[in-house]
Design goal:
single chain, about 120 residues, alpha/beta, five-stranded mixed beta sheet, 3 helices, about 30% helix, globular
Length: about 120
């Protein structure tokens, strides 16, 4: 018989607006709050970096985050600080002004373990 295992998951709910710095502060605050419950996985909602309404493709790219951005380094740091996995979804800058809606999985040491593009914007 297979042994059962379990994991505590914290699903964070927060509203994102059009201010990237404020959105990051909200993510970090909620991660810290969720971490008090010692989850093995913290999951943030979609479009954590910017609300998903854009004027045009160029605007979407401007408010998207690069994979090596301070925004995502701060999320990775929280995964390391709390020794937990974190999934964040945001728009990620890609080549030639494109952006993707991407879910990113950070591990307990802060490394990026996986990325899954949901859509091409």
């Amino acid at each position: 018989m297979r042994e059962r295992s379990s994991i505590r998951v914290a699903a964070i709910q927060l509203a994102s607006g059009d201010n990237l710095a404020a959105n990051l502060r909200g993510c970090l605050r909620m991660i810290d709050k969720a971490a008090l419950l010692r989850p093995g996985l913290i999951v943030l909602p979609e479009f954590c970096n910017h609300v998903c309404w854009y004027e045009d493709r160029a605007h979407c790219h401007r408010v998207s985050v690069a994979l090596n951005s301070g925004f995502l380094r701060a999320i990775a740091s929280k995964a390391r600080d709390h020794s937990t996995y974190i999934v964040i979804n945001c728009t990620v800058q890609r080549d030639e002004g494109a952006a993707t809606g991407t879910s990113l999985l950070y591990g307990p040491t802060g490394e990026l373990l996986a990325a899954s593009d949901k859509q091409l914007l």
